[in-house]
Amino acid sequence: MRRWMQSAAAFGAAVDDPGQEATLWGDGADPDLDGRTNLEEYAEGTDPLAADAPPPAGLRLEGTGAARTLVYEMPLAAPPADVVWTAEFSAALGGWQPAAVEAGSTGVRAVAPAGSAAGFVRFGVARRAP
Predict the structure, then answer these.
(1) Does pLDDT of 32 surpass 90?
(2) What is the rounded distance in angstroms from the CA atom of residue 68 to the CA atom of residue 62?
(3) Is the pLDDT assigned to residue 60 strictly greater than 80?
(4) pLDDT, position 104
(5) Residue 101 to residue 85: CA distance in whole angstroms
(6) What pLDDT score does 45 carry?
């Protein structure tokens, strides 16, 4: 990820300046003010210096009966291997439950707990432990 930060046009040598970590190049910084942190932009393959929309996502039901599951997919060109995705589902924006997450070469897919017919999803991303 450090190479990615250094290669971003405006980050460059600023990555070596700890005084700019919180506002420009750190994982939690959002220099383009689009609501997504640098870590999220890195994980999604978007430009951290251009306010842009997140990748398109889709929500659908798969299966039938008790095996019916709610699936949320976010297509990504190539999710980086050095991040870990998490997802949670909720029927009413409370009582969040962990969801299974699959990150592959074409994107990130979250599967709600069995029996979920509708609801909300929230993704999280963190650096993978070395």
Answers:
(1) yes
(2) 6
(3) no
(4) 76
(5) 7
(6) 82
